[in-house]
């Protein structure tokens, strides 16, 4: 820590430089050091003990001090754009297991950290990603319906929810929004408000299966590579709508596709594994005698399709928009294992399409580092703003680690 402290102070000065008060900047740098020091727990009290300070300093800084965590994120996003030069913006969410019921947004939900339904909070995040690095540049805490009194008609239940919200100081305008809507909100903030260049958006099927999310990206002019379920349906790209003959009674018929759409699994299996090609999308670090280059390699098929859904707007001729269907069909597997829909250009190389589809692996690295090394899920406070400030500072600590790894003269232990 003595060796890298100057870099921490310099980086914290850039990111926290908008603070009006010098003592706030000092406490911010102190909190970052606490997150980066060795130690299993990164909650207030253990960090304060390792730093040799009163934990009330850290508590006050995160929970009640007057500083703008959104401005800190904006500065970090601008830094990530310049330092990392991201190839994509990746959306994901992660669970924060909790024992009690007082943390904001806590409810019984599926939690990936537990691998089952449990008592937890869910955080949705946007990451600026390239093959060698990534940065979590924006966050939202998901608020379940059980935390929104507008979602109930029972007066007693509504009164109880209002009391819970007041204890956590949840702003009045913050209401239950689906995770995919939170993702769109953050993309608006990152691109429209902060001015970052548009990048392809990548996400798992939790977002890709939401037709409204895909349409929202297209409305914003953002291309995407989104994982989807094999049960989603589409027409082949060559399918053409047909207008039935008008018999003179009632409204004239509208053009429609003569055949029903097929599910994505059927479209790919009908094309056959022979239509696929082997693609190496990156080289890992675990080399072996059988794989000396540690290459990530599999068979992929790319087909042009027209996703079918009643919510998707159609053209004047009744046609649905065309996009890519990408499927991974690994050797030895009887059927494809993964599917994506993408609005990347029709002339994109298969390798480039696959690399973007697979770039989500960086998010698993992010969450692992943020949780295991930097205490992302160790926050024990019960305030809405405290949670958002803690995850912002944890992401800032990870950005410092990224910079250290990229600095040629950084200490070996960094």
UniProtKB/TrEMBL annotation:
It comes from Gandjariella thermophila. Residues 15-287 form the Transposase IS701-like DDE domain. This is Transposase IS701-like DDE domain-containing protein. Coiled coil: none annotated. Signal peptide: none annotated. Residues 242-263 are annotated as: Disordered. It comes from the Bacteria. SUPFAM superfamilies: Ribonuclease H-like.
């Amino acid at each position: 820590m003595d060796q890298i402290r100057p870099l921490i102070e310099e980086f914290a000065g850039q990111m926290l430089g908008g603070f009006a008060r010098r003592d706030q900047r000092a406490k911010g740098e102190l909190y970052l050091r606490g997150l980066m020091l060795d130690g299993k727990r990164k909650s207030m009290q253990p960090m304060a003990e390792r730093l040799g300070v009163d934990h009330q300093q850290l508590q006050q800084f995160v929970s009640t001090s007057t500083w703008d965590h959104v401005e800190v994120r904006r500065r970090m996003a601008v830094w990530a754009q310049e330092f990392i030069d991201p190839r994509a913006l990746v959306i994901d969410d992660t669970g924060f297991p909790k024992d009690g019921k007082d943390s904001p947004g806590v409810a019984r939900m599926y939690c990936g950290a537990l691998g089952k339904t449990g008592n937890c909070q869910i955080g949705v995040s946007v990451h600026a990603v390239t093959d060698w690095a990534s940065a979590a540049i924006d966050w939202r805490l998901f608020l379940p319906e059980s935390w929104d009194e507008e979602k109930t008609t029972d007066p007693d239940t509504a009164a109880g929810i209002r009391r819970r919200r007041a204890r956590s100081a949840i702003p009045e305008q913050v209401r239950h929004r689906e995770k995919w809507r939170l993702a769109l909100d953050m993309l608006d903030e990152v691109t429209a408000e902060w001015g970052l260049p548009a990048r392809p958006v990548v996400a798992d099927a939790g977002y890709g299966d939401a037709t409204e999310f895909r349409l929202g990206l297209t409305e914003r002019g953002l291309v995407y590579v989104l994982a989807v379920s094999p049960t989603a349906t589409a027409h082949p790209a060559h399918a053409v709508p047909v207008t039935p003959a008008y018999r003179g009674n009632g409204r004239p018929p509208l053009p429609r596709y003569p055949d029903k759409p097929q599910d994505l699994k059927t479209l790919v299996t009908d094309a056959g594994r022979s239509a696929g090609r082997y693609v190496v999308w990156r080289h890992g670090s675990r080399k072996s005698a059988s794989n000396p280059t540690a290459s990530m390699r599999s068979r992929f098929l790319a087909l042009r399709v027209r996703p079918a859904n009643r919510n998707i707007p159609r053209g004047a001729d009744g046609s649905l928009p065309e996009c890519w269907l990408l499927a991974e069909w690994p050797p030895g597997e009887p059927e494809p294992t993964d599917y994506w829909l993408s609005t990347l250009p029709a002339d994109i190389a298969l390798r480039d399409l696959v690399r973007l589809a697979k770039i989500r692996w960086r998010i698993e690295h992010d969450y692992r580092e943020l949780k295991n090394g930097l205490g992302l899920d160790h926050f024990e406070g019960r305030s809405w703003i405290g949670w958002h400030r803690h995850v912002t500072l944890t992401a800032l600590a990870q950005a410092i680690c990224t910079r250290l790894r990229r600095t040629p003269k950084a200490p070996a232990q960094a």
